[in-house]
Amino acid sequence: MTAPNGRGLLHLAAALDQEAAHDAAPYVESARLAERGALDFVTLGDTFARPGPDALAVLSRVAPATTRIGLVPTVTTTHTEPFHVQAAVATLDWVSRGRAGWHLDVSTTEGEARLFGRRRAAPAEALWQEAGEVADVAARLWDSWEDDAEIRDRKTGRFIDRDKLHHVDFQGTAFSVKGPSIVPRPPQGHPVRVVDATGEHARRVAARHADVAIVRAVNAARAGALRTELREAAARSGRDPDTLRVLAGLTVDLGDGEHAADPGHGGGGPRQTAQGPLYRGGPVDLAELIAAWHEAGAVDGFHLTPLAPRRDLERLVNGTVALLQHRGLFRTFYPGSTLREHLGLTRPVNQYAVAGKAS
Q: CA 314 from chain center: how many Å?
């Protein structure tokens, strides 16, 4: 499906982060609002550096309270066990019936390392190399069950066809995994992997393993250059670059309602802050910015972080998104049921099943 300008329809996502929320209700309310706007997915951040609810557990609670929107928690690959991480993400995909994603991140500080007591903090390059290996082994473990491995034959008492379970026998720089997984292959085959590609080391991992890469730029030209860099790196790694969606990460402050955007905002691009690009203005000008960057081919869409979670998400959905829908640039309903379908991504083939047929 394409927009009137001939490009693919926009992909839009929003962050649900709320510092003061320690129960599921506010997240459920926000996710339902985002779903009414037909957004591709919502994210929920997580880190060992500050207290707060576990993002994956919260979105597992949000899953049965929603029906279509994708759910993408941050799950850190440092200090955690890759086998358990992939099983948890696969479980979220089952609970949500194919709407799970996984925002990969790393833990860089000595304070976070002391929480676990297993090893010292490591340089970012080493941590992101490990994150890439975790992404790799997760895909292998998701494929370690073929789609028809479950038999569930009560007469014979056979639950699985053991010939359709596979050992992954993965050896990384900091861990090894034999497999197979303890969770059947997820509904999407592979839950969607998201990487914030702001840093150089993260960008390499995104090009090789991510389905969605988030970039941060204050103008369309820079965003377009980052998108081109990621797509070229994906092609060099043997991937089809059209399987990578590149979204611009942008914090939005819609607090003053409808008015002309501040200088340096609106169609002229967001303002750089210590936390990244910030747009401050009205929902209409934000829609113009999104449409202009998409028209220029700079990005495939936007990941938007409301500065004031409830207020700005409501104005985003009821104002900006509604205008983009009216112009035919964004969907008004979900044509599919899985997050991969929202993003226009096919379900991956099982690498072990393909290898078995080839032999």
A: 21
Provide the token pair at 153. 């034959």
User: What tokens appear for 263 in the block?
Assistant: 């200088």
Report the C-alpha gap between 239 and 206 in whole angstroms. Answer: 11
pLDDT digits (tens, 9 = 90+) for 80-91: 999 999 999 999
Rounded Cα–Cα distance for residues 178 and 297 (Å): 43
Q: How far apart are CA 291 and CA 330, in angstroms?
A: 10
Q: Tokens 């941060």: give the residue.
A: 216
Q: Does the predicted TM-score (pTM) go above 0.85?
A: yes
CA distances from 271 to 79, 122, 218, 248 (A): 35, 32, 6, 14
d(CA 15, CA 307) in angstroms, rounded, equals 10
- What's the DSSP call for residue 329? S
The amino acid at residue 311 is: R
Do residues 30 and 18 make contact, with C-beta atoms less than 8 angstroms apart?
yes
Question: In angstroms, rounded to a whole number, what is the distance separating the alpha carbons of residues 208 and 68?
Answer: 27
Provide the b/e sequence for 132-152 (b: ≥16 CB within 10 Å): bbbbbbbbbbbbbbbeebeee
Closest residue by Cα to residue 107 from 99, 98, 116: 116
Q: Take residue 269 and report the two structure tokens written for it.
A: 């691009």
pLDDT band at residue 160 under the 50/70/90 scheme: confident
What single letter denotes the amino acid at residue 199? G
| Nearby residues of 44 by Cβ (< 8 Å), 6 or more positions away | 15, 16, 17, 27, 55, 58, 59, 71, 72, 73, 74
Neighbours of 238 (CB within 10 A): 7
Tell me how far CA of residue 281 lies from CA of 1, 101, 119, 303, 329, in angstroms: 30, 30, 45, 17, 21
Per residue in 233-288, pLDDT (tens digit) is: 999 999 999 999 999 999 999 986 555 455 544 444 599 999 899 999 899 999 99
